[in-house]
Amino acid sequence: MAQPTPGPSQPPATPAQGSVDIKRRAEAEADVSRRIKHQRAPLPPPHVLATLVPDSPAFNDLMKVEQKLDWTLLRKKAEINDALGRPVRVKRSLRVFISNTAHHQTWQDDASGRSQEQNGDSTQNVDVNTGKGIPGWVLRVEGRLLDSGNVRLDKTKRKFSSFLRSVVVEFDNREPPTYPEGNIVEWHPQTLQAPLDGFEVLRRGDTNVNCRIILHVAHFPERFRVLAPLDGLISMKEGTRADVMAAVWKFIKVVGAQDKEDGTIIRPVGGMEKIMPPGQEGVAFHQLPELVTRFLNHPQPVVIPYTIRVDQDFNLHDKCFDIPIEIDDPLKSKMAYIVQSFEGEEGREIVKLEDKVGELAYFARDLKQKRDFLEAFAAEPYTFIQNWLAAQARDLDQMLGFQIGVAGPNGGSVREEDLRRSDVFQMPWVDEAITVHESTRMEAERRGR
């Protein structure tokens, strides 16, 4: 197959030129990877923009304002992320409403005008299976989280049961067989159960009943009651596990219970012997959480005494109680939304506009270079062509590794007149020069081994 010959304006490739091509290809691939990683290239310098666009001073002022705005947004974003990483707790009040209603009581039947003379025997209107006609009452326990002032910070309303771990209602004087339902009612959250706004307890009876409503409040993060003697050492009655561990570590540092030679050992000094096993000379630092956990217990429940009244004077008797709790700051959800908005639709739109501005700036730069090229050629064609050929000759000399007109470091010289002729690279001496060069290189490699 015939080999294609190079054109008159394209010299044949040499080993030096091949290495240059490989280097250029690697640089091009690296440039592509950089463009993929950083899609938006930096804008040209202000003095370059000033030569490209007459209105660039106004654009530069706008860029300065944008830089200040970007710096402010980045600083605020860092502050918000730092605040989101810290547990911020706010104190709120959980208001519990307790009430009861009565039905089918004697005074209710008399008030409705249903007497025995009108309805006949009253036992005929009683259904034992459904409870119709049997006196009874309904106890209601409801609650909601109070807003702070007149402004509701958290838009998502949490149900009452989401603040509780369990609810226990204990009744007095309701023993079987008169009341087979029992005197204890319990509620525990189920995995797939939806949150509730309140609870109702339906029972039969026509007498007043004393009860106790026991509410186990759910804390997030979970809180614990510190037992003796640890509570006396750290002066803390209740707190989260992190708070208790921080107080214990502070106490160890104050009393000097950390071993002087081995900092991973805690010695029974300064009061630490009260919580350590008797006869033990010290515990390892990683065993400290396990040791502290022995003196933590669930916090005391909230006990609300209540009397269920079924007489006429106290029907629909309601009471409310406020339970102080700590919850996550509702503003954290707003801060998280603000952080997400930075990378939302608005953020993507800003990035697109900035990319468009960069493209236009570089497009203007390319147009100016073309204009300057053509204006220089139109002003002085001869001088322009001479300068252009000299620049091309210098580039070719760098590619070949020779110096123009002078014996170069590679042992050859090329006259400037010869560089302007393409047929000089098609002469027989080129193949011979390549053969000599490769033989010299292979001989040098063989001796070097």
Topology:
Layout (H helix, E strand, L loop, with lengths): L14 H23 L8 H7 L3 H30 L3 E15 L2 H6 L4 H4 L16 E10 L18 E8 L12 E4 L10 E7 L4 E9 L5 E4 L3 H5 L3 E3 H15 L9 E2 L16 E2 L3 H6 L2 E2 L4 E7 L9 E11 L2 H12 L2 H35 L1 H20 L15 H4 L9 H20 L1
Antiparallel strand pairs: 1-2, 1-13, 2-5, 3-4, 3-6, 6-12, 7-8, 7-11, 9-10
Protein name: Putative chromatin remodeling-related protein
Pfam family, one: SWIB
Organism: Naematelia encephala
Could you explain how this protein is built, in words?
The structure is a single chain. By secondary structure, this protein is of the alpha+beta class. Among the domains are: 13-42; 89-117 and 125-219 and 300-328, YEATS domain (Immunoglobulin-like, Sandwich); 223-297, SWIB/MDM2 domain (MDM2, Orthogonal Bundle). The chain is 42% helix and 19% strand. Helix 3 runs antiparallel to helix 9 and helix 10 (345-379) packs across helix 11. The radius of gyration is 45 Å and the shape is elongated. The two termini are 39 Å apart.
